[in-house]
Amino acid sequence: MTVLHNTFHAPTRSRGGYRQAPPARMTREEALARLAQRTMPLPGRPVGVCTTPGAPTSPRPSVSAPVDSVVTRSYPKPKLSQREVEVLRAWLNLDSKSAVAESLFISLGTVNTHLARIRVKYNEVGRGASTKAALVARAIQDGIVSIDDL
Question: What dotted CATH number matches 82-149?
């Protein structure tokens, strides 16, 4: 569809007819009202279960709550082999995959294969990890590495 641009803020003409120009500026309250009408799926929930942004999904502990009263969440853990754990730890501690390959005396393709299988196993348990940062988070959650190790 060809659209002709108009600099005078009049309705824009296209092959389909005229369409109204968007409002110049929306107030904060209008923007929040529009956002509250939208529903967004939550990760780890069935597709049909949605919630509006800003609505509390679960009670969160207050900042002043003692550490002992904070409930830790258990995550489903994938069944990683010992070599996959070794490759994952090395990759999180070293700068590149080629450095991992050199330190473990394996090829770069083998490193990529191990990391791909780790990601598949995390996806199978419903905890996708498509980036290195996501894998760091998963490894910390599962106790594979600690923050002090990084």
Answer: 1.10.10
Under the banding of pLDDT at 50, 70 and 90, the label for residue 67 is: very low
Domain spans of the chain, in order of start: 82-149
Query: 29-39 as b/e, with b when 16 or more CB fall inside 10 Å?
Result: eeeeeeeeeee
Integer Cα distance of 127 and 115 in angstroms:
15
Provide the whole-model pTM: 0.52
The three-state secondary structure class of 9 is coil
Q: How many CB atoms lie within 10 A of CB 42?
A: 10
| Cβ neighbours for 64, distance < 8 A, ≥ 6 positions apart | none
